[in-house]
Amino acid sequence: MASKLLRFMSLLLTFSTTVFAQSSTPGAASPALYNFGPITDYDKALPSSTDVLRFRRGERYNDSNSAQTELGEGSDAIHLRSGETHFKRDLLPFGESNEVVVGTVTVGQAFLSNDKRRIYSEFKVEVKEVIKTSGSAYLRVGDSIDIERIGGRIKLPSGKILVRGNMPDSMPEIGGRYVFFLKFDPHTDDYPLVTGYQLNGTQVYRLDDMNYEDSNWRDLNHALRPETESEDQFLQHVRNEASTANKGGN
Q1: For the chain, which domains are there?
Q2: Parts of the chain with a pLDDT under 50
Q3: Among 4, 34, 109, 131, fewest CB within 10 Å belongs to which?
Q4: What percentage of residues in the chain have a pLDDT greater than 70?
Q5: What is the mean pLDDT of the chain?
Q6: What separation in angstroms does the CA of 136 have from each of 67, 115, 185, 199, 247?
Q7: Alpha helix (H) residue ranges in the chain
Q8: Tell me, what's the pLDDT at 66?
Q9: Spatial separation of the C-alpha atoms in residues 45 and 113, rounded to whole Å
């Protein structure tokens, strides 16, 4: 058991270095890799009771398990939740998404939930194309929006890094281009991430595993699964599906 843990830690350190050293330039030859999310110093990740939106966002991620202690030096360095047995997702979840956009991630930061028991990450995305938009969250090209996903990394004062998240769900990379399927939350004025696809100029990669069988990785140091369509083909496919979904909703 100890040898497996040491191997896992070694893979984690190697993987973290690789992810943040790689280029995010569109068309890069290297495949997109699973990403644990941004690393944020503990003091910058603390919840706020004076910032209304930050408080509401942090409250959403509170842990309902009252026996769970606050994250700190005594916490396990790594805790990733596995996907539910035999889970399956829709490849293009228009029905679950208020907004579907093509965008570039400009900033990313991890935060603690208000009860300090969980970590979530927030990313600013510059909208480059709007494929679907609806309701009060009406989006336009050039808008900057906040998207969120549970998980991320927080660096404690000792230097210890806490990693949290869901194993089937990779985090977006800062500088990366994506098709994002989003669910607007008017209470927090942000967009929890349903799923996404990374665009590398020619190749498209799934940000998330779509079913339990595809999520059975031997280790976390793996490339994201590629789509068989090129970027241009995939984007046209998504636009066509959005048009069909819109007609079906009328």
Answers
A1: 34-249 (2.40.50.120)
A2: 1-28, 250
A3: 4
A4: 86
A5: 87
A6: 38, 30, 10, 28, 20
A7: 2-21, 42-45, 52-60, 231-249
A8: 78
A9: 9
Residue 121 φ/ψ, nearest 5 degrees: -120, 145
Predicted local confidence at residue 248, as pLDDT: 61
The tokens describing 24, both together, are 């995010």
Is the separation of the CB atoms in 187 and 57 below 8 Å?
Answer: no
- The closest alpha carbon to 40, from 122, 127, 137, belongs to 122
This prediction's pTM: 0.86
Phi, psi of 138 (to 5 degrees): -50, 120
Burial class (CB in 10 A: 0-12, 13-18, 19+), 51: exposed
Give pLDDT, residue 9: 45
Q: Give the whole-angstrom CA distance, residue 102 versus residue 33.
A: 19
**DSSP 3-state assignment of 10?**
helix
pLDDT of residue 4: 42
